[in-house]
Amino acid sequence: MNGFGLVALCGGLAVVLWVLAKLGRAFAAIAETLAALAVIGVALWALLRAVGWIVRQLVTRWRSCLAVLAVTAWWHWWGWLSLALVGGTLALATLVWHVVDAVGFDRWCGRWLRAWWLRWAVYGRKLPDWLHACGLTIRDEAVPVDVTVNLVSRRRKREAVAQARQQSGVAVPALLRVRSGPSWDEVQVRLVPGQKPEDFDDAARALATARRVTRVQVREVSPDVVSLDFMRRDLLATPVSCLPLPDLVAVDGTGVDLRGVYAGRTEYGKPWLLPLTGPGAHTLVAGATGAGKNSVMWCPLVSAASAIRAGVVRVSGIDPKGMELAYGRGIFARYGVSGKEALDVLDALIDVLEARKREFAGITRDVPISAENPLELLEFDEIGALTKYTDRKTREAIVERLAILTTQGRALGFGVRGYVQEPTKDTVPVRELLPRRICLRVTSKTHVGMVLGDGAYERGAWANRIPESAAGVGYAWGEGIREPLRVRAGWVSDATVKALENYVTNGGAQVIDLARKRREGNARGTA
Ligand SMILES: Nc1ncnc2c1ncn2[C@@H]1O[C@H](COP(=O)(O)OP(=O)(O)OP(=O)(O)O)[C@@H](O)[C@H]1O
Predict the structure, then answer these.
(1) 10 Å Cβ neighbour count for 16?
(2) What positions belong to coiled-coil segments (predicted)?
(3) Helices 204-211 and 124-133, interaxial angle, to 10°?
(4) Would you tell me how many other CB atoms lie within 10 Å of the CB of residue 168?
């Protein structure tokens, strides 16, 4: 290579080196810019997430946020000592209030504090896990599941599982609201697409186990919101009393609303009202022996005592056992024990029904209840004894008359209430004609469906699990009750039945002598 070639080579190398150096600098500047942009981007992203979190907390937990803000502001301006003093005084005042007036405290303060605490400490933290464990989450199958479990500690493990669940596309119903009553927590959740309220019905028992309570009631609040009601305390654990008999002197009118008379207490601590007239007055009460069917019969009668006394309600009784109703015989205007006597009672009622039809046809669509046209209430104890376990002719005649009374009776002022141990269609052929159903303790899960209808057990009517010690406890469903309602009938002692008899008869039984009427009728027929 000559001198010129060498110079050209060196020159070329120098140019390449210069270009490379320029390129290196340009790349370094680009990389620096990208790194700076990445840092700014990450910082912005973190900031946005933080702002989003704060806004979410402010919206969803505004009370807690306000409390934290107030405490911080107090600390900042007036110092920790005054804050501790005020906090201590408030805590002491709350404690005294609770001790002096527990009911008032719970109503005005306790339930808010408890709801707030339960949301933070229990439902907010644990509900997503319970819902997931009970199969109440929806997983997006398109996203691969990647669960990482950290075994270091239970808390870290739970966080890791929760995070894994989030990352794996699992949609968990959102917790909307927690309310806490004296015995129930109402926890509202929003369903995720793909879920239906029935899914929660099916999981009710599993949820109860997860929360370690004996009962969970699922209520549909709106199409996509359900309330999971957790029963913390059983308000029906002890017997419920019936109403006292009215003061004889004080009663001028009847003062009884027959569309809803007191029959006991509901599991929510409210009075349980049963209609004796109007839609849904015909009632079927089912329960195994000793379940407390008679308190469902006596308690409303005690509540309607002044109306019975005033003649606005006329009670008839069919008592195949000849024991239960016989104890308050004077209360019943008509009374029968045997199949034949039962037919007499039913025929007498049908006579009144026909007479009312003739009198009111074309005048009114509903017979007004009054002393002239009283509510004719039929109490039919052990209905199965005469609708199944008797001779075929009597059985058919009784079923036929019951069908007439139940299908035509409502508008004409008649109410039929039947009590049965075995609620099969075979035993009570008129079962479907008694729309209001009450299921006390029964011996089998299938009986729950027979009494309350399909799906009642799944929706929380666990009547086969009522303990023998809880006589009078049962589930009511039908007419105006959206979810099975746990109730306990008011306990009526023998002395109260006697007092009721004495009260409504004004000291002496006023009964219609059906046998004499029949004899008179026969005599008229022969003449
Ligand atoms: N509401 C109630 N609260 C507490 N105890 C009750 C209640 N109702 C009934 N009992 C008690 O339970 C027992 C059985 O009640 P009851 O006679 O009403 O049962 P039943 O369902 O009519 O049984 P059977 O069909 O055998 O006559 C009674 O001894 C009574 O003391």
Answers:
(1) 10
(2) none
(3) 140
(4) 14
d(CA 209, CA 207): 5
| Most confident listed range (15-29, 154-168, 172-186, 513-527) | 15-29
Q: Which atom of ligand 1 is nearest to the CA of 440?
A: 21
Range of weakest confidence among 245-249, 303-307, 431-435: 245-249
| Residue (of 329, 292, 307) closest to 261 by Cα position | 307
Q: Binning pLDDT at 50, 70 and 90, where does residue 161 land?
A: low
Nearest CA to ligand 1 atom 5: 471
Q: Given this model, what pLDDT does residue 149 score?
A: 47
State yes or no: pLDDT of 59 exceeds 90: no
Label residue 524 by pLDDT band (50, 70, 90). low
If you measure from the C-alpha of residue 13 to the centroid of ligand 1, how many angstroms do you get, rounded to a whole number? 110
Distance between CA 439 and CA 461 in Å, rounded? 8
Strand 216-222 relative to strand 225-231: parallel, antiparallel, unpaired?
Answer: antiparallel
Report helix, strand or coil for 216.
strand
The residues spanned by each domain of the chain are 74-231, 240-526
Residue with CA closest to ligand 1 atom 30? 292
CB-defined site of ligand 1, < 6 Å: 239, 287, 289-295, 421, 471-472, 488-489, 491
Return the higher-pLDDT residue of 77 and 511.
Answer: 77
Report whether 312 contacts 372 (CB < 8 A). Answer: no
CA nearest ligand 1 atom 29, residue: 290
Length of the chain: 527
Residue-level pLDDT at 264: 94
CA of 296 to the centre of ligand 1 (A): 9
With a CB cutoff of 8 Å and minimum separation 6, the contacts of 132 are: 165, 170, 172
Tell how far the Cα of 427 is from the centroid of ligand 1, in angstroms. 21
Nearest CA to ligand 1 atom 15: 292
> What is the structure's pLDDT at 518?
57
CB 172 within 8 A of CB 192: yes
Cα 443 to ligand 1 centroid, rounded to whole Å: 15
| Separation between Cα atoms, residue 262 and residue 389, nearest integer Å | 33
pLDDT at position 488 over 90: yes
Q: How far apart are the first and last CA of the chain?
A: 158
